[in-house]
Amino acid sequence: MKIIKQKIPEVLLLEPKVFGDDRGFFVETARVSLHKDLGLPNLVQHNQSRSEKGVLRGLHYQLVNPQGKLVRCSSGRVFDVAVDIRRGSPSFGEWVGVILDDCSHKQLWIPAGFAHGYLVLSEVADFCYLCSNYYDPSSENGIIWNDSELNISWPDLDKEYQPILSIKDRKYPTLKNQSKDCLPLYIS
């Protein structure tokens, strides 16, 4: 597996070896020993979502029970984003965005303390998350997807287009307007 550090060094892109022939393909999607070598925490919960084209999920994070996430798109194509929202971080407010799809099988490691979201680019996409902590709805929070100061370059979205959002995701504040008590603290 090839490991590619992103512009925010804690965010990693994992490129697995894909073994294919005329019958299909085989790809290893997780290995505890590799996760340990990379310094990733134990991954305790596996989630999957299915969404249609134009759905944007995020930007989500958990404050009290933060989750690191190893994410991949098992079917279809998405633009996946990790935003550093850790107070005091040298990369606070910076983001990494990558295309994840069912052809390259790349995965993105998003550490705890980052907001996460993705936009579905294909007609339908299945998205898988391996999480370092359990989902805790009482700890869930978010940043609005179109925060002008973050200036995330969502592909296929022009200024007039509005993605399909949940009611909750429409109501999140900008990073600047998020209460400091609602943001994780950077620990070097």
How would you summarize the topology of this molecule?
Elements: E1 2-5, E2 12-15, E3 18-21, E4 24-27, H1 32-37, E5 45-52, E6 56-62, E7 69-75, E8 77-84, E9 95-101, E10 107-110, E11 114-120, E12 124-131, E13 140-142, H2 167-170
Antiparallel strand pairs: 1-2, 2-10, 3-4, 5-12, 6-11, 6-13, 7-10, 7-12, 8-9, 8-11
Jot down its keywords.
188 residues; mainly beta; Jelly Rolls; globular
At the fold tier of CATH, the topology name is: Jelly Rolls
Q: Uncertain spans, ≥5 residues at pLDDT below 50? A: none
Structural class: mainly beta
Provide the residue-averaged pLDDT: 94
State the share of residues found in helices, binned by percent.
under 10%
What name goes with the CATH superfamily? Jelly Rolls
Give the strand order, joined by hyphens, for the main sheet: 1-2-10-7-12-5
CATH architecture, by name, is Sandwich
Which CATH class is shown? Mainly Beta
The tally of helices reads: 2
Structural Rg: 16 Å
Amino-to-carboxy terminus distance: 27 Å
Q: Could you tell me the strand content as a percent range? A: 35-45%
Main sheet specs: 6 strands, antiparallel
Based on CA inertia axes, which overall geometry fits? globular
What is the string of helix and strand elements? EEEEHEEEEEEEEEH
Number of strands: 13
Number of folding domains?
1
